[in-house]
Amino acid sequence: MEIFLFDLDGVLLNSAGYHRSLVETVRQLSLTLGFGDRGLTQEQIDAFEARDITAEWDSSALCAALLLVTAWETNDDVSLPVRPPLGLPRPARHAFPDIRRFLTELDRRRPSDPLAEAETILLRRIDSRRPDHAAAVRSLLAGARSLDDSLTFRLVQMYNLGSRRFEEIYSEAAGMESPSFLEMYDLPTLNDLERASLLRKLEQAGRSAAIVTNRPSSSPLRLRSRRPGAPKRVHPPGVLPGGQAGGVFNTPEAEIGVHAAGFDRLPRVASGDLGWHATALGLDVQSFLKPSPVHMLAGLLRAIGDDGVRAVEMAIRLAHGGGGMEPAWRAIDGARLVLFEDAPKGHTSARRAVEILRSNDVSVDFAPYGIASSPDKVAALTAVGARVFPHVGEALEDALPGWRA
Questions:
Q1: Helix, strand, coil % (nearest 5) of the chain?
Q2: Are 366 and 355 in contact (CB under 8 A)?
Q3: Which of 39, 119, 150, 244 is the most exposed place for a label (fewest CB within 10 A)?
Q4: How far is 395 from 368, CA to CA, in rounded Å?
Q5: Mean of the per-residue pLDDT values for the chain?
């Protein structure tokens, strides 16, 4: 048996929408804080992702904190609003900070939590007589994934979903008007003929496939939105409760992306599926996302036909020693797992999953393919043992010769 697992963004989908949301968020912050009309370059975005800072909620918060600290060097009265609108742009007075240089400073420390380490570095640059500055930086970074606490989260989600869908999901005013960047800019990496040919190959006897993505998705249990006049919630509607950072989001971003890529026929495991189970167990809501082995273990079971809820439950039990080997795992004994993934943490998740299976006498042959073209990401993927190709089509030609026929 061959089991093909595909990441979505950067593999089956040219995820320009997320990147455009990040660029526009940083551009708005730059205008507001007096850095002029500046966003992030693709090289800078790749530098974040090579360090596994792949969520735009995190990278935008880090950028906001760095911009604020830099602006305070010449004007200590600059501040950001709590939520949109942002107000009129300030005159350009500051030099835009060197993002890559700052990330290199993080590299020297090899942090397990880049945002926490970034906070430590930035706090050292703040005048000790300005505790309000320190509080603002802490709030930006600690609340990066909280609708109630984070300006950058609001901006990124508003651009991702579009202002109208943002208001429908979160039951709050967006504060700005915008279309959905995911719907506007996300494009499939394979054309119609290639996609049809690949699906035929994947549906042949002895083959199966699934999508494994950290994108937010609708969870098995939708949360009720806040009614007008109700007390302030501890988490926004559309956000699963739990976790220090505020949650994994119950928004249909995975569904939007899978549809845009043209792979609605493939089963998937996304954030909503995993976050719901983590919350039910009283764990951090991101506990089972890549790089956790649970994500890839659940993907294996989804690929061979298991129900989504059951697949995640069995993956959690196997990864965390909650029971013996269930018959479903024996069905993949001797299988070849072929992974297509553009982030190091996805490869880490798969390797850990394979190790757990082998330790339980389930033999799985692992073929990891990295998808990247920037030097930073190529180096990071090579370091985790992947064979790297610039496009998923080229990786497929190596893994599945003649797949376009």
A1: 45, 10, 45
A2: no
A3: 244
A4: 10
A5: 90
Q: Which residues have CB under 8 Å from 115's CB, separation 6+?
A: 58, 61, 62, 141, 142, 144
The answer to whether 133 and 72 are in contact (CB under 8 A) is: yes
- Provide the 8-state DSSP code for 292: S
| Cα–Cα distance for residue pair 100/245, rounded to 1 Å | 24
Structure tokens at 41: 């370059």
And the tokens for 213?
Answer: 């993505």
Given a cut of 90, whether residue 71 has pLDDT beyond it is: yes
Q: Which two tokens stand for residue 359?
A: 């330790």
Distance CA 48, CA 200 (A): 36
Contacts of residue 262, Cβ cutoff 8 Å, sequence gap at least 6: 188, 190, 192, 195
pTM over 0.70? The answer is yes
Q: How many CA atoms lie within 13 A of 87 on its CB side?
A: 13
The tens digit of pLDDT for each residue in 332-375 reads 999 999 999 999 999 999 999 999 999 999 999 999 999 999 99
Residue 101 burial (CB count, 10 A): 8
Q: How many residues are there in the chain? A: 405
> What does the block give as tokens for 356?
């757990």
Burial zone of 290 (CB within 10 Å; 0-12 exposed, 13-18 middle, 19+ buried)? buried
Name the β-bridge partners of 210. 5
Q: Count Cα atoms within 13 angstroms, Cβ side, for 29.
A: 35
How far apart are alpha carbons 370 and 381 in whole angstroms?
6
Closest CA to 152 of 30, 250, 58: 58
Longest dimension (CA), the chain: 69
Confidence of residue 136 (pLDDT cuts 50, 70, 90): very high
Nearest in space to 122 (alpha carbons), one of 165, 112, 109, 392: 109
207-239 b/e (C-beta count within 10 Å ≥ 16 → b): bbbbbbbbbbbbbeeebebbeeeeeebebbbbb
Task: Report which of 57, 45, 52 is spatially closest to residue 346, judged by C-alpha positions.
Answer: 52
Question: Which residues fall within 8 angstroms of residue 315, CB to CB, at 6 or more apart?
Answer: 288, 293, 294, 295, 297, 298, 301
CATH number corresponding to 2-11+187-399:
3.40.50.1000
pLDDT of residue 112: 77
Q: Could you tell me the residue ranges of all domains in the chain? A: 2-11+187-399, 16-182
